Amino acid sequence: MKDLVKIGKKVKQFREGNAFSLVNFAIVTGVSAATLSRIENAGQYSQEMLDPICAIMGISAEDLLTTDVTKISKEQIAGRIEDQVEKRGIRKTELNQINRKRKTFHGPSYLVRQAMEDGFLSQFRHVNEIQTYIKDEYGITLISSSITNALNRKEDIIYKPSGISNYKQYKFVRRKSKI
């Protein structure tokens, strides 16, 4: 039972780490989304269902428990996906659509970090300004509470009251590391 949980966590970690939705990963691997969900949630499945998933990872099912799936090369994954496209007869347009979605499949924390790196948060900003910036730059609309939660998890973000009740302004400040 412990192995089912570990395997499920590894598969989910790999899928999410490579920005695959459940449906898109199902298309690429040939394993149904329902089966992928069962695997990720330690449900019942046959060992053969792991083979196409591990083929994308470039490891054997036996090595899945001991491999750090976050260290698998993105370039090698892309090559294995191309191989699967040819083997399984996936149309190139479908693969291109999946890859576009993978590039834009980011959560609030990632997008807030990008806004920090872009320098947008070098001055105090309201959440609605950050929301507009992320929508304009990345084409993704986030709800304000998701942005606020992501900002509150960042150590290098400071905030001040904005003068409007219960609203804050946020700013990125690079902290000096301790020696």
Give a brief description:
Helix content is 56%, strand content 7%.
Number of helices: 9
**CA gyration radius, whole angstroms:** 20 Å
The helicity comes to 55-70%
Contiguous runs where pLDDT drops below 50 for at least 5 residues: none
What topology does this entry show?
Elements: H1 2-17, H2 22-29, H3 33-40, H4 50-57, H5 74-88, H6 92-104, H7 108-117, E1 125-126, H8 127-138, H9 144-153, E2 157-161, E3 168-172
Antiparallel strand pairs: 1-3, 2-3
Structural write-up:
With 179 residues, the chain is mostly helical. The chain is built from 9 helices and 3 strands; from the N terminus they run αααααααβααββ. A hairpin with a 6-residue loop joins strand 2 and strand 3. The radius of gyration is 20 Å and the shape is elongated.
Please give a handful of descriptors for the protein shown:
single chain, mainly alpha, 3-stranded antiparallel sheet
